[in-house]
Design a protein that fits this description.
This protein has 635 residues and is of the alpha+beta class. Helices cover 67% and strands 9% of the residues. β7 and β8 form a beta hairpin. α10 (251-280) runs antiparallel to α11 (287-316). It is elongated and about 120 Å long.
Length: 635
């Protein structure tokens, strides 16, 4: 073989180096570790499959464990039938006493009546349990049954009252639907409470796990979820109205009310699937936590609607102080905080403890942040209550053609000041919460300060708009609802912000004008206005007759209470204003308060048209001005 030349050896070395470097240069980024994800999914699937198979296989041990339970009961001198009969007797007696006291003490307030009748029912139930079985496992079973029944009656009554209280105001469904909803709620809430009693009996008598699992799953969990889902589906209209509360309703509340029955059903099905999956994989969820979470989730929106109506009535009532009305509104926020804290205590606290977190430290920080938020919410609601008391309720809908009634200066400035105060409260509360959590807020404050200086130096027009608007408001140049003209735009003042004013034209167009572009304001809604009306009549019309007719019309209109309140000077004739092309232009006028001159003008025009017909006065049309003069008439 011919030895390789020096050139060939150089080429081979370059190719070898290129082949070694190519994988490094062209190597794609490492793919995501899908193997770990697949392994995790396979592990979970295997655990669920094996757990489900184990639960199915455990059903073969149910007869054996049932026989063992029956033998333990016989050793105690009773039987399963006898225990459940005695337990049903105690529960039935407790329920009868509870509902009897409920009907007899209906005049007492709810806060006093419910604890009192629950205590009476509990005492009667415990006394009956002691009479039927004084001691042993049977007596303990009956006493726990009395306690669970009394507490269950209290819980059912409270939940039923909370979930149907929103139907007392606003749009009310027919009484038959309300009665059906209360009856269905009682049945659907009583079933899981009876299931708790069954669990208690099985645990007290040391029933086998297979027997307990099968009985609780088939006779408690599945029927409870399906029953309540059926109730929510059947009474979806009434439940939606109960959550929506009275009008006016916010957009968020409307959407929540419309979807609330479906949300409840979805939550219950998810809870059922979660609990059954947890049992299948061998990590059962605590039954008390699941039940309390379901109660809190279902009852909180209904309780919020109930407190919201109570707070609204407090704001509108002069007998309730502003501070008390704000406290009522703050109670809504407190309910949300308590519900969140309860769910966090039931689920997040055990998880945080298992991960090594100091739960007491976390709870202390959360309590401090919640206290700051509650104080800020109270100040927020005080501001809102003061603004509502100052501005009053919005007027009822009237004539569609009528413009909005002008508001006072106080009603114009208070909403703007209220928004400004709420913004300050929110900012201070947010900074205080961050400080309580150990977050350094000075960089945030410095950043906002620099941002504000940049805006001040870089946007002179914005500063001009804000300063000009401040002086316009101080000068009381316009108010909400007034009809004004600014920079060639006319309309009623619909919105006032810190940098612009929005005008709604009578044809519907909305114009937003920055304060810095306003050179003058022409206000048509202040103090008084004079409305002048022109009528064309024939040249031979008796002017004195028209004058007397206008005077009579003015006197008659002045006696109308709906018009007299806005009329300052009655309608009267101003005589001949113009002679034009063989016709007389007669003018009349009236002086009125601004706001509703259209009402007076409409009455005057109708009366003039009727008077002209009755007195034989002929109105003539305006002559056309674009007629070509006859040939040769041009001067």
């Amino acid at each position: 073989m011919r030895p390789a030349s020096e050139r060939d050896r150089s080429i081979q070395r370059v190719n070898i180096m290129a082949n070694q470097a190519l994988p490094l240069a062209a190597a794609p980024p490492p793919p995501p570790d899908m193997a770990a994800l697949v392994t995790t999914l396979e592990t979970v699937t295997t655990r669920v499959t094996s757990g489900f198979s184990a639960r199915i296989e455990a059903l073969d041990r149910v007869p054996e464990q049932a026989i063992a339970l029956a033998e333990r009961m016989r050793d105690a001198g009773t039987s399963a039938t006898g225990i459940f009969f005695l337990l049903a007797s105690v529960a039935f007696l407790t329920i009868i006493v509870f509902w009897f006291c409920q009907s007899r003490l209906s005049r007492l307030g709810m806060a006093l009546r419910l604890p009192l009748i629950t205590l009476v029912a509990l005492i009667v139930g415990l006394a009956a349990a002691s009479m039927l079985a004084s001691g042993g496992a049977v007596g303990q079973t009956l006493r726990q049954g009395a306690v669970i029944t009394a507490a269950g009656c209290l819980l059912v009554m409270m939940l039923r009252q909370i979930m149907t209280a929103g139907l007392a105001s606003g749009a009310k469904p027919p009484p038959a639907r309300v009665k059906r909803l209360r009856r269905d709620l009682t049945l659907s809430l009583a079933w899981p409470l009876a299931g708790i009693g069954l669990q208690m009996v099985l645990r007290l008598w040391q029933a086998g796990p297979a027997l307990t699992d099968s009985l609780v799953t088939l006779f408690v969990s599945l029927p409870s979820v399906l029953l309540f889902s059926l109730v929510a589906r059947r009474n979806r209209r009434a439940l939606a109205l109960a959550v929506a509360g009275p009008r006016p309703r916010s957009l968020l509340r409307k959407h929540l009310a419309r979807r609330w029955p479906a949300i409840v059903i979805g939550f219950l099905l998810t809870a059922l699937a979660s609990t059954q999956t947890a049992i299948t994989v061998g990590a059962p969820l605590p039954a008390t936590a699941v039940l309390m979470t379901a109660v809190i989730f279902v009852a909180t929106p209904h309780l919020d609607a109930l407190i919201g109506e109570w707070a609204r009535l407090g704001v509108l009532s002069e007998r309730v102080s502003v501070m008390a009305a704000a406290a009522r509104e703050t109670l809504r926020f407190m309910v949300l905080v308590v519900a969140s804290a309860a769910i966090g205590t039931l689920w997040i606290a055990p998880l945080a403890a298992s991960l090594g977190f100091d739960t007491w430290s976390v709870a202390a920080d959360a309590l401090q942040a919640a206290s700051i938020a509650l104080l800020a919410a109270y100040l927020w609601n005080v501001t809102g209550s003061v603004a509502t008391r100052a501005t009053g309720e919005p007027a009822a809908d009237g004539d569609e053609d009528a413009p909005a009634a002008p508001r006072s200066r106080l009603e114009t400035l208070v909403p703007l000041l209220s928004r400004l105060a709420r913004s300050v409260i929110f900012a201070l509360a947010a900074l205080s919460v961050l400080l309580s959590l150990g977050v350094n807020v000075w960089p945030i404050i410095t950043g906002f300060s620099v941002f504000g200086l940049a805006i001040g130096f870089g946007s002179q027009a914005l500063v001009k708009d804000i300063v000009s608007g401040l002086f316009f408001l101080i000068d009381d140049a316009f108010r909400f609802g007034e009809y004004i003209e600014i920079s060639g735009s006319k309309g009623s003042v619909e919105k006032i912000s810190i940098r612009s004013v929005s005008l709604r034209h009578h044809r519907g167009a909305l114009t937003t004008i920055p304060y810095g572009q306003i050179d003058k304001v022409e206000n048509y809604s202040r103090d008084w206005m004079i409305e002048k009306l022109a009528f064309r009549v024939a040249f031979d019309t008796d002017i004195e007759k028209v004058r007397r007719l206008f005077k009579k019309i003015g006197q008659e209109i002045s006696t109308d209470p709906a018009i007299a309140v806005d009329l300052i000077e009655p309608f009267k004739s101003q005589g001949i204003a113009l002679v034009e092309d063989g016709t007389l232009v007669i003018r009349g006028k009236f002086k009125a308060r601004p706001g509703r001159p259209w009402l007076i003008r409409r009455a005057v025009l109708a009366a003039v048209q009727k008077g002209f017909q009755e007195h034989g006065i002929k109105a003539v049309p305006k002559p056309l001005l674009n007629e070509t003069p006859p040939h040769g008439d041009a001067a």
